[in-house]
Amino acid sequence: MTTLTVGLLLFLGAHSVRIVAEGWRQWQIARLGEGAWRGLYSLLSLIGVVLIVYGYGLARGDPVVLWNPPGWTRYLAAALTLPAFILIAAAYVPRNHMKASVGHPMVAGVKLWALAHLLSNGLLADVLLFGAFLLWAIFDFRAARRRDRAAGVRYPAGTLLRDTIAAVIGAGLWLLLVMVHQRFIGVAALG
Predict the structure, then answer these.
(1) What is the reported pTM?
(2) Integer distance in angstroms from the first to the last C-alpha of the chain?
(3) What's the rounded Cα separation, in Å, for the pair 121 and 185?
(4) What is d(CA 28, CA 48) in angstroms, rounded to the nearest whole number?
(5) Model confidence at 190: pLDDT above 80
(6) How far apart are CA 135 and CA 129, in angstroms?
(7) Residue in 91, 179, 95, 190 with CA at minimum distance from that of residue 140
(8) What is the rounded CA–CA span in Å between residue 94 and residue 168?
């Protein structure tokens, strides 16, 4: 569990600097330069992801069961992750209604993804992994919306075409993950 925890601290810690220390972040960017800051951020994030994946695998090898969720929660998780993936895709498709209304669809998608997995998994490693991502996403979404309001950010109005593109990409990624979930994660996404 230590490896998983360290990975989460590195990854989510790097992704939380803007939430807790925006002034320090800006100072570091000015001091180091944009490229060096991004490089350091990316390196910490990559190390964090590697440790999360490795640590999660280790933790699943010696599972600590907190509860046994009912079987139907897997189907609920699959149903909830579809809009989560569409929201994540919407973050990268400009001028769509989801981005215009939500502002930060990537973080909203991560919230939904993490919640879905918390509902359908009862191991300590699952609660640690998905609970940490859910908490981070809640605080990051709130901080990002606060920054938007303070800066007067307005997202451009969306179009039906861009909504459709985001939905197709998100649904395609969701379907791909459903098909490979068993192979790479070890759990069938649809039961």
Answers:
(1) 0.91
(2) 26
(3) 13
(4) 20
(5) no
(6) 10
(7) 91
(8) 14
Q: What secondary structure does DSSP assign to 163-177, as a single string?
A: HHHHHHHHHHHHHHH
Q: Please, what is the Cα angle at 137 between 135 and 141, to 5 degrees?
A: 125
Please name the residue that has the structure tokens 């991560």: 110
Which amino acid is present at 45?
A: S
pLDDT, one tens digit per residue, over 121-174 is: 999 999 999 999 999 999 999 999 999 999 999 999 999 999 999 999 999 999
What are the φ/ψ torsions at residue 93 (nearest 5 degrees)? -105, 110
CB 126 within 8 Å of CB 118: yes
- pLDDT for 46 equals 97
The domain spans of the chain are 1-62, 65-191
Which DSSP symbol is given to 33? -
Tokens of 95: 């001028």
State both tokens at 21: 């220390």
Q: Are 116 and 80 in contact (CB under 8 A)?
A: yes
Q: Where are the beta strands (DSSP E) in the chain?
A: none
What are the residues whose beta carbons fall under 8 Å from the beta carbon of 82, sequence distance 6 or more? 170, 171, 174
